[in-house]
Amino acid sequence: MTTLPEAPIELTIERLGQLGEGVAQWEGRTVFVPGAFPGDTVRVHLEAQGKVLRGLLGQVLTDGAERVSSRCVYSDACGGCDWLELAVTAQRSAKQEIVLSTLEHLGRLKRSAFTVRPLMVAPRDWGYRRRAVLHGAGKGALGYFGRRTHERIPVDVCPALTPVLTALPGKLAPLLKPLAKDTEEVLLLAEGDKAAFAVNLSGPVTARHLEAAAAAVRALRLEGAVLVPKEGSARLIGRPVLRSLSPLRPEVPVYLRPDAFAQAHAEANVGLVTAALYELGAKERDSVLELYSGNGNFTFPLAGTAGSVLGVESSPVGVELAQRSAREGGVANVRFIQGDARKVCDGLVAEGRSFDLCLADPPRAGAPGLAKWMRALNVRRVVYVACDPASLARDAAGLVEAGYKPVALQVVDMFPQTHHVEAVMSFEREA
After folding, report:
1. What's the mean pLDDT when you consider all of the chain?
2. 154 pLDDT above the threshold of 90
């Protein structure tokens, strides 16, 4: 094995990797350099992390053509937005290429085998995030994890967040000091000009926690808060459930809660839902199985064109919010099952059920076993919404092996200034 040099070395960055890092070559080995971009000449200290060789960035000697100045004072250390110094046009082309190359290399799916739609651009590339996850950062501060570390970076103001949330980290932190030693995460959520927060606790909810959270809600004129204990039921303070409107179906309310998942970019989410519905192509007689249905983000637009929708979601909060939307919106052709997707699908197979279409929006880990369920449930068309290219590639390969042909790919730039991306991919069962 080659001995790594103790002194820093110079590298030229050739491209971007799947996780957004710069990629260079050193003595025939691939080196990943966080914070570096194509065309940069950099000085790095080489470090082996398992089988992966990383370059710890010491200095950018020469800027690549696509490097720009950061708009955030925390960008040198904060891991929240890793592409702040990469031009937006370069970000967009890189995201499309990252998804396609991951499908090729991990999923063995040639890009010529399906339609590649033009990238769907986010309406806003700054000040767009309506949700955030903060961590205790010492001395009562709140902040984000550092780049590729679990070091906590204190943040008072975050310009990536929507205006109502931008200054909330610094304002909220001193008010939540009584909870600090028991806090695992603080979750922020906004809808329009309304905001709420949740605190994930390491133990039970106490009177001291309730008092401090209620005082913070009053002092900052927030809608409410949720205290989530390690075990047992969450405690709600004020009105932390924020009302929104269903994408493409504004007559149906959609409810958000800070301790439940919601897409971070509200405007780009409309494009994401539109793309998923277009690829699925549901008609009025079609039965749709929706896996990982959350609070109904895709469910109610789907129900507007399909005959019926069965949503499967593991989060009790997500199902509760979705059922409320269905009642208040008068949507009668949807039903929700709260449970693990794997167990629910096994149960549906055992019952002999079948569905015409399936839309799956799994978490970052993907949906292992999806292909098996699709065949057993006689699904003819599958639309997979992915937030991780590697999981998409793995599950896409499984679908192809099970007899589903890839049809089209739509990449959506949901997370400007970061390497994160959403992708919508459709598959049709071959005869």
Report:
1. 95
2. yes
Contact present, 204 and 230 (Cβ < 8 Å): yes
**pLDDT value of position 272:** 98
pLDDT at 40 over 70: yes
Coil, strand or helix at 403: coil
- d(C-alpha 204, C-alpha 209), whole Å: 9
- Which of 296, 305, 344, 345 lies closest to 323, judged by CA? 296
Structure-token pair, residue 85 = 């110094």
224 burial type by CB count under 10 A (0-12 exposed, 13-18 middle, 19+ buried): buried
User: Measured between alpha carbons, how far is 155 from 168 in angstroms, rounded to an integer?
Assistant: 10
Residue from 275, 268, 334 nearest 300 by CA? 334
CA angle at residue 337 from 333 to 343, to 5 degrees? 135
**Distances from the Cα of 393 to the Cαs of 85, 104, 290, 369, in angstroms?**
28, 8, 20, 13
Q: Is 387 a catalytic residue?
A: yes
Does 388 belong to an annotated binding site? no
Contact 413, 96 (CB under 8 A): no
Spot the catalytic one: 81, 345, 358, 387. Answer: 387
- Asked if 269 contacts 135 with a C-beta cutoff of 8 angstroms, the reply is no
Task: Check the annotation: does 278 bind a ligand.
Answer: no
Q: Which two tokens stand for residue 136?
A: 């205790």
Dist CA 411 CA 429 (whole Å): 22
Contact 168, 161 (CB under 8 A): yes
Which amino acid does the sequence have at 320?
Answer: E
On whether 263 is known to bind a ligand per the annotation, the reply is yes
Q: Which two tokens stand for residue 231?
A: 């075990």
Question: Does residue 1 register a pLDDT over 80?
Answer: no
